[in-house]
């Protein structure tokens, strides 16, 4: 009854089914790993945002690489803004996907070391991408700032290419080591996204809290792949039974049909 399974067509179909099952299982396992990674990152971000503010010097220093556990921690610093050496970070968007700049201002601490502060987003001038934009001034004199500690930006992590030959005082990526060379000063590793004090008039537009990654979507994909893997053998069995029924029905029809040597019954 099932000798047809030895035919070329059915051997190929069976081999394809046997290959699909482990492939789909592995894809489901990969999606589960992605789910676990995203869930772990969400937990780290939530813990960092909920932690009490600490002085920035407790978490970073010149040459320090901000770790995953330190990222998004709320820090404070006392000093003054140096707008003479302020730069803007190109091709940054706000919540409405409008393209503009991030304003990066050196913040000089009492001991002369520098903390890079991202004061927020401003729109770019469509008529000129090379002219330095007008930037609202920060508070004058000694100020205490608060914000989220962030690691230096890289092309690998951000997907943003570091273009050379940019107009004066414009950069693509926030890199504390490069800024230390430009400023000829000791710059603390990473930078701070300012959350307080709020700017006068609401500009620069301060950056919102990081969003949660959709880990549940990866879980749904994993379950979907495993259901597909379970469906392959079920589908194979359904096809085999259908083929067997069709062949049996065809054989019974052939048996009922009269041969050429036998007259049909009237």
Automatic annotation (TrEMBL):
<keyword id="KW-0812">Transmembrane</keyword>
<protein>
    <recommendedName>
        <fullName>SURF1-like protein</fullName>
    </recommendedName>
</protein>
<dbReference type="InterPro" id="IPR045214">
    <property type="entry name" value="Surf1/Surf4"/>
</dbReference>
<feature type="transmembrane region" description="Helical">
    <location>
        <begin position="219"/>
        <end position="239"/>
    </location>
</feature>
<keyword id="KW-0472">Membrane</keyword>
<dbReference type="Pfam" id="PF02104">
    <property type="entry name" value="SURF1"/>
</dbReference>
<dbReference type="InterPro" id="IPR002994">
    <property type="entry name" value="Surf1/Shy1"/>
</dbReference>
<feature type="region of interest" description="Disordered">
    <location>
        <begin position="246"/>
        <end position="266"/>
    </location>
</feature>
<keyword id="KW-1003">Cell membrane</keyword>
<comment type="similarity">
    <text>Belongs to the SURF1 family.</text>
</comment>
<keyword id="KW-1133">Transmembrane helix</keyword>
């Amino acid at each position: 009854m099932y000798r047809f399974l030895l035919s070329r067509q059915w051997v190929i179909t069976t081999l394809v089914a046997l290959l699909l099952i482990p492939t789909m299982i592995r894809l489901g396992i990969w999606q589960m790993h992605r789910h676990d990674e995203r869930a772990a990152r969400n937990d780290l971000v939530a813990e960092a945002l909920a932690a009490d503010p600490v002085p920035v010097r407790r978490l970073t220093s010149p040459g320090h690489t901000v770790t995953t556990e330190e990222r998004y921690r709320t820090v404070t610093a006392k000093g003054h803004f140096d707008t003479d050496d302020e730069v803007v970070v190109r091709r940054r968007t706000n919540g409405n996907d409008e393209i503009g700049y991030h304003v990066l201002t050196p913040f000089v601490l009492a001991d002369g070391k520098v903390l890079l502060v991202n004061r927020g987003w401003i729109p770019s001038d469509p008529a000129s991408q090379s002219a330095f934009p007008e930037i609202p001034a920060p508070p004058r004199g000694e100020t205490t700032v608060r914000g989220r500690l962030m690691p230096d930006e890289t092309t690998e992590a951000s997907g943003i290419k570091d273009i050379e030959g940019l107009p004066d005082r414009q950069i693509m990526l926030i890199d504390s080591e490069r800024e230390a060379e430009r400023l000829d000063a000791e710059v603390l590793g990473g930078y701070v996204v300012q959350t307080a004090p709020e700017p006068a008039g609401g500009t620069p537009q301060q950056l919102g809290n990081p969003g949660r990654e959709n880990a549940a979507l990866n879980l749904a994909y994993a379950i979907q792949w495993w259901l597909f893997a379970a469906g392959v053998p079920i589908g194979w069995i359904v096809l085999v039974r259908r083929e067997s029924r069709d062949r049996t029905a065809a054989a019974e029809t052939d048996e009922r049909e009269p041969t050429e040597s036998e007259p049909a019954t009237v």
